[in-house]
């Protein structure tokens, strides 16, 4: 129908027209079948499995239908349109569908197609199969963050692996298919920090970790969800099914009695007891895997929930008590206490590290010019950052260039854009630290002339580049004396 046709249109003879949502879903079904029809008989098996895992959580878009219902509708569409695309799709969904009913429906539909003379793909009997190899578990010193690398092998193919991050609460917060597990293992070893551990674990231990993490993960990020079916299928190769989750029981009143017995300086009155019992319950809800967990990530969440009545003394006593019972190191304890100190200081990150004899107003002016905000948008997410942290400063600079976010995420940043971000970050670091002081003097002089912040930073960046030379490792060497003289001329 022409988009410019006018007048009353005749009702179609077939009855009511399909809704736009149904039409869109039908179009998506056809597209998916076309993708699977394009698979060659000799297609890479791992690529086939990833495509099937992605189809298993396919969703047409927001609406009332659940993922499970939409998947059953996709299987029904394949039933009605027999052919190579339908056979390829069903052969993967019967393995990677995360819902048992969908797996059964896909298997039954594939058998119907085969009975009707449709040839199944040559990899039908091997898709989803592999030999479990070594599994490695990396833990931080608080037992709060786990990284699990499981390697899988197939005859005639390179090894591949799944790298799974399990964070606070036992939920999956990282999931990646790796085609070079040996390199990833070497990187894990190289990046271990003090008190981190990396150990080889049995398949049954790895399966228990993964199976429980899958159950605990309520919301999957889109980039993780497309591998959920593959993860569920692969973890079954690691050993027998693990027992059901049994989180440790915590006797709240008994825990409070232990706390006060260990801290006689804290008065055991009604208010303090309620606060201690609240802390016990909070830690149990946030991290059910361990009895009364303590760690940095838990404290970050605690900062927004801690009752106003809680005193610094009570919180410090709680942290020390938990650290002692868990036998954490002095360094680990210091890290926790440093985090907790900020709960009560009402500290301004822009004044962190400022000496008593420094001009507070001048420091604020300089640092707020360098970084006007301590939060930024990265993609679609607003992120709170610490401008005292070098890496966070770089992210705040990146936040000012949304046009480069996608290129950075895809590791496709061109040299010119990389130079822009790198040199702008260098100027911001110099302003923040007031080193050299000529940077701020020049910036202030330009600002007083009516030049806006972005153009000031660009002028400073240009001066920096004019006084720097490239190094063999990709960095740059700054002629600091010439740089300072050039900055002085600006001011």
Automatic annotation (TrEMBL):
<feature type="compositionally biased region" description="Basic residues">
    <location>
        <begin position="1"/>
        <end position="19"/>
    </location>
</feature>
<protein>
    <recommendedName>
        <fullName>DUF1841 family protein</fullName>
    </recommendedName>
</protein>
<feature type="region of interest" description="Disordered">
    <location>
        <begin position="1"/>
        <end position="25"/>
    </location>
</feature>
């Amino acid at each position: 129908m022409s988009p410019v046709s006018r007048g009353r249109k005749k009702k179609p003879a077939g009855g009511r027209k399909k809704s736009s949502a149904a039409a869109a879903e039908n179009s998506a079904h056809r597209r998916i079948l076309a993708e699977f029809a394009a698979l060659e008989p000799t297609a890479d098996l791992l690529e086939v499995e990833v495509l099937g895992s992605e189809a298993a959580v396919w969703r047409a878009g927001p609406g009332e239908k659940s993922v499970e219902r939409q998947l059953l509708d996709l299987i029904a569409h394949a039933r009605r349109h027999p052919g190579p695309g339908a056979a390829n799709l069903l052969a993967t969904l019967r393995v990677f569908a995360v819902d048992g009913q969908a797996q059964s429906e896909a298997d039954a539909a594939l058998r119907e197609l085969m009975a009707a003379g449709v040839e199944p793909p040559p990899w039908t009997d091997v898709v989803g199969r592999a030999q479990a190899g070594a599994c490695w578990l990396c833990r931080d010193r608080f037992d709060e963050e786990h990284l699990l690398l499981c390697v899988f092998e197939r005859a005639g193919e390179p090894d591949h692996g799944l790298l799974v991050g399990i964070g606070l609460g036992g939920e999956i917060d990282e999931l990646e298919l790796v085609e070079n597990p040996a390199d990833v293992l070497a990187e894990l070893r190289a990046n271990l920090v003090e008190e981190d551990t990396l150990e080889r674990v049995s398949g049954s231990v790895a399966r228990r970790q993964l199976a429980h993490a899958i159950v605990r993960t309520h919301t999957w990020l889109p980039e993780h969800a497309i591998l959920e079916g593959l993860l569920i299928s692969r973890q079954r190769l690691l050993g027998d099914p693990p027992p059901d989750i049994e989180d440790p029981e915590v006797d709240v009143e008994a825990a409070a009695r232990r706390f006060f017995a260990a801290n006689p300086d804290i008065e055991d009155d009604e208010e303090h007891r309620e606060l201690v019992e609240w802390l016990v319950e909070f830690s149990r809800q946030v991290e059910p895997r361990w009895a009364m967990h303590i760690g940095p990530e838990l404290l970050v969440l605690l900062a927004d929930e801690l009752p106003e009545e809680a005193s610094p003394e009570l919180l410090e006593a709680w942290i020390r008590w938990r650290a002692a019972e868990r036998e954490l190191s002095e360094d680990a304890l210091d890290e926790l206490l440093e985090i907790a100190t900020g709960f009560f200081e009402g500290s301004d990150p822009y004044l962190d590290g400022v000496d008593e004899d420094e001009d507070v107003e001048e420091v604020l002016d300089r640092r707020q010019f360098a970084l006007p905000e301590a939060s930024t948008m990265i993609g679609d997410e607003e992120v709170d950052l610490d401008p005292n942290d070098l890496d966070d400063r770089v992210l705040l600079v990146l936040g000012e260039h949304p046009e480069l976010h996608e290129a950075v995420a895809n590791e496709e940043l061109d040299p010119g854009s990389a130079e822009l971000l790198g040199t702008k970050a260098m100027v911001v670091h110099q302003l923040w630290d007031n080193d050299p002081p000529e940077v701020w003097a020049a910036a202030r002089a330009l600002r007083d002339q009516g030049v806006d912040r972005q153009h000031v930073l660009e002028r400073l960046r240009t001066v920096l580049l004019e006084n720097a030379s490239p190094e063999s490792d990709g960095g740059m060497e700054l002629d600091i004396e010439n740089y300072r003289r050039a900055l002085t001329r600006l001011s």
